[in-house]
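Hi R.,

Here are the chain sequences for the assembly we discussed:
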Amino acid sequence: MSSTLKIEGLRVEVAGKEVLKDLSLTMHSGEVHAIMGPNGSGKSTLAHALTGHPGYRILDGSVTIDDVELLTMTPTERARHGLMLVLQQPFEIPGVRSFDLLVAAGADPATLRARMLDEARRIELAPELLDRFVNVDLSGGERKRAEMVQLGVLRPKFALLDEIDSGLDVDALDVVAQRLVAATTEWNCGVLAITHFRRLLLELTPTMIHVVSDGRVVATGGPELAVTLERDGYDIFRSTST
Amino acid sequence: MNAFAESASTFIAERPDAAARRRAWSIYESTGLPTTSDEVWRYAPLGDLGLERFEVPSAPATTPDSAFATQLSQRAGLVIRVVDGFCVSTGDLVEGVTVELDESSESLAGESLLDRYESDAFSMLNVALAPSATVIRVAAGVNVVEPVVVLNESTAGASFPRTQIVVERGASVTIVEYFEGGANALVVPVSEYRVEDNASLRLITYQRLDMSAWHIARTTGFIARDARLHQAVVGLGAHYDRSRNDAELLGAGASNELRTTFLGAGDQVHDFRTRQYHVAPRTTSTLLSKGAVADHSRSVYTGLIEIEKGAKRTDARQTNHNLLLSPTAHADSVPNLDIRESDVMCAHASSVGPLDELQRWYLESRGVSRDDAQRLLIQGFFYEMLSALPSELAELVESDVASVLASVAVVTS
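And here is the predicted structure of the full complex:
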């Protein structure tokens, strides 16, 4: 089944400052979209606001999956409607095992162990690390792989990736990207990747790139936009954002 | 009528060597119980204790093991049963381990218990009224593979279990001291652990007494050269739960890892005290104390790191985190340092607060409900403390902790 994620006129405030000023974009199941933009443009704010992070206040706008409004929902309900954020710096949760987290998130305990092992194999995460407390004593790269195990088990309709490429070596980046590409066909997952770097996009091959500057989408285009950005930087887009 | 004094007097008169008991009793009588004006007892509701109502049993009651105690026993290599302070079974023979009952009132520190604990009225009561010490000795060089479980069951009245564990040079063992029962009872355990050169003792004290019990416990570890004492103390039960855990790092390279944790519900009081006493050079202590208080319960954690002159290159760390699960619960944290040597590493940190909002959000953002997220986080608070458990016991104890946590209400303000 195909779904549509639609963000319209989103305005978000963080610590008293309006960071997203009027952000809109639409994407569908199975597509890969990238959001690129300079530091402070509002990229990470988008990811956190969509998933209901407590530090972000929605001022206006709408976010829907298949016309169902998410912004009035709790973070739990948003996740259960198919939205999952893969974090740049996933939290350590001492004393909580991934298995218990995933059961509480709705995974079937009867098959969960096998699925986690399968996902760990695909993402090249040592299986014994699955038994550690969530993200505790894991390296930065292992944490991102562990997030991908959760993604593979939870199978969200739309995956938001918040700069998962930062701090990942090239091999790890390739494995993560390949898993995401597979997800777009396996369960028709829509992938919205927030990134600074083109490297991730070489593997992910997005159909659409959205350039964000000063809290707005200032340009949308095909993969060629990433090439332009790498060559010319973000400055040419900034002038359009006033 | 003072049931306590009368039954204590009868008990002492009937014991074979009553001299030390009489001396301990007279010390208790001359000093009396502490009061809350005494700094180290200021959080204890001792005015409500009513010591005179507790009768000292002359023999152990007959009581069946709980389902949990039975399961714990099934996973142990050696089970020692202590009922109302009386050792009723020293268990099957395990190679390299001896279990003996000792009425001599000697401390493992090489002096009498009287001299050692003279200033502590409850310890004096234990010296006077413990039927005997259960002495567990692991012979030099022996690695005891399966855990040893000491089941302490209390029925009624006042009981005074005493346990002494000696792990000889180069030996290693895991021991669980478990406490249950104790409805409307007073339980005053005294435990000592001597870990000799290069030996290792892994110890878990799991206190699951009835919520009406008074539990006033004291443990002391004596750690020799390159020896290791890893101790976890979990307090879930009792109306008033006092747990004082000391470690003396006496030999160079000795190390002590202590994890203490408690859960408060109803109007419980958990009163945890620790003292890490570094005497020898290159000694290490790592102390992690975590507690959670719900309803109207309260807790106090008081920790002292004491470093003697000459204990060079000591590394001592103390961390205390307290979780407030209701606006009417209260936690105090009192870290203290007393350092008489300059060439040391020493750190302490403490915090008191509600559940971490961002950790909760992280779980919720995966589709976990708020209630489940809170339950997982609180459970995790304790599971982290239980990570010292050997795998054959971990699942059992974790599920027991989870069953207790399931009944605790979380009120976020």
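The longest strand of chain A covers residues 17-28. Chain A has a mean pLDDT of 92.

Let me know if anything looks off.

Best,
T.
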